[in-house]
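Q: I have 85 residues here and want to know how they pack in 3D. Can you give me a structure?
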Amino acid sequence: MSVNRDEIKGKIREFIVENFLFGSGDDLTDDSSFLDGGIIDSTGVLELVEFLEEEFAISIDDEELVPENLDSLNNVTAFLEKKLG
C-alpha cells in the first residue's frame, strides 16, 4: 500500500475529529497528545487501533500500543510510515 505522509495524517485527523472531537478540530495540532489532552481515553485508543488496522491493512501488536506510537497525529503518522514502509 502506497500512501504518503500527508494522506496518512489527513485520514487520522479526519477520524479523530469526527469520532472524538465531534467535528471541531480547530485546537488539534500535529503534536497534541490524545491522552494528556483528554481527546481520547483507553477505549478510544482501541477504536483508533481498529480504524488504523482496517484503513491501512496492517496488524498492530499489543507491544506496539504505546504513546510513542499512538498519542498524537505526528506519532501515529511516523508509526504508520514504519509499518507501511
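Q: Anything worth noting?
A: The helical segments are 5-20, 42-56, 67-70, 73-84. The first helix runs from residue 5 to 20.
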